[in-house]
Predict the 3D structure of the following.
Amino acid sequence: MNESNSVKEDVDLVREVESLKNENKALTGKITDLELTLVKKKREAKTLLENSEKQKESLLEWVSEENDLVQEIEFYASEMNKMDKIYADVSAKYEDNMGILEGMIKNVGFLKGEIGALVLQMGMLEEEIPERYRDADNLDKKIKGTFVRALNDLQNRVDVVEKKAKVLYYQKEKI
């Protein structure tokens, strides 16, 4: 029994070895397949890593550009706020100046009306000047004429009085 057991054991062992060899072949095939798959996966991983690095560089460039744009936007926003304040100040000054100009325009309109009235009065006075000058000239001539006549009359009276005085004087001397 020993021998039969031993043969049986040997046969079992041979079967087991065969089974292990077959299993080994199957595992070797799987290992080969897995190694091929691993090589393919490593290549894919390497390609993905390279692509990832490129994407990372590209992403960093985009992030950098985005940061630059954000800073520019913030700068322009602050400049726009400053411009809005300046615009508000200028607009307020403009409104004040427009109010002042409106007042000045009203004053100019009033002065224009006053000047127009003065021009009309001057025109009327200029029209009256020749007539008044003529009247004054005539009056002056009348005064001169009257004065000359009065002087002549006075001279004549003085002459008459002188003659009468001489006549009286000579008449008294004869007496």
The helical segments are 2-174. The chain has one helix and no strands. The mean pLDDT is 84.
